[in-house]
Amino acid sequence: MGDFSTSLTLSALKDLLATPQENEEDTADNNKYSAGPAFATPGGIASSSTGNGTEAQPAMVTRKSAKDKQIRQAQQEKLANSKDIWTEDEVESENHATIDDDDRPEPKYTLHFKQAVTPEDMYLGMSGRNPSSHSCNEIVVVVELPAHDVKHVDLQVKRESMNVLTPTHRLNLTLPHPVDDKNGKAQWIADKQQLRVTLPVKRDYDFLLES
Question: Is residue 64 pLDDT above 60, yes or no?
Answer without folding.
Answer: no
